[in-house]
Specification:
Structural class: mainly alpha
Number of helices: 10
InterPro entries: Homeodomain-like_sf, HTH-type_TetR-like_transc_reg, HTH_TetR, PsrA_TetR_C
Number of strands: 0
Strand content: under 5%
Radius of gyration: 19 Å
Helix content: 55-70%
Pfam family, one: TetR_C_30
Keywords: DNA-binding, Transcription, Transcription regulation
Distance between the termini: 74 Å
Protein name: AcrR family transcriptional regulator
């Protein structure tokens, strides 16, 4: 027998199991950190009787981290490509900063109930063993490569060392400001901005100001 979406019951069950494991792993990693959570704990929390279920479905922890990121990259990629197309040819820093920020905040705003992806991303970014995975997966998306290329062609023209320094600052702001808002929403505490859209505006303002700030010459 084949289901109405062209999948056998076994395939549908496997797909549902994989999604449950991904959701559980994302939540546990976001709340506790990558090294604090074992595959055995994820399997148990996901309701899997087999303690080796995570390894069976995904392989190593690095493979699992990649799978979580790829589950979100599709929707974010579509949003970013649409935004990039709308500002094609612009040489305004703010336009391209918006293309970096808003696809992520719009994606997070689309969740019904709690999300964990921003906090998960912050955990990955601060873990030396897994941070390279974030860089590899992010730069593998055509939309991000397009946005970064256009962004770097905007004024001001920065020296290489300042470009690298501000790039690090930009990435830190993007990941941790969004993660902090997600945490506050999960805990029911106050946030500076009422909505994800307003939070994106504030973050775009800050990054634009950072990127275009004057340089102190020694």
């Amino acid at each position: 027998m084949v289901t109405d979406v062209g999948r056998t019951p076994r395939a549908a069950q496997v797909g549902a199991t994989r999604q449950q494991i991904l959701t559980t792993a994302e939540r546990l990693f976001a709340e506790q950190g990558l090294y604090a959570v074992s595959n055995r704990q994820i399997s148990a929390a996901a309701g899997q009787g087999n303690n080796a279920a995570v390894g069976y479905h995904f392989g190593t922890k690095a493979d699992l981290v990649r799978a979580i990121m790829r589950r979100h990259s599709g929707p974010i990629e579509a949003l970013r490509m649409e935004m990039a197309s709308a500002v094609e040819g612009s040489r305004e820093v703010r336009d391209w900063v918006a293309c970096l920020v808003r696809p992520i905040t719009t994606h997070l705003a689309s969740f019904e109930g709690e999300s964990w992806y921003a906090r998960f991303s912050a955990q990955v970014m601060t873990d030396p063993a897994f941070r390279p995975i974030m860089a590899e997966e992010s730069l593998a998306t055509p939309s991000l490569r397009l946005v970064v290329s256009n962004f770097r062609q905007c004024p001001p023209e920065l020296p290489d060392e300042v470009l690298a320094e501000r790039g690090d600052m930009l990435r830190t702001l993007m990941v941790h400001v969004v993660a902090e808002r997600e945490r506050a929403l999960a805990e029911g505490t106050a946030t500076p901005r009422a909505t994800w859209d307003e939070a994106a505006t504030g973050l775009i303002d800050a990054i634009t100001g950072l990127w275009t700030a004057p340089i102190t010459r020694s």
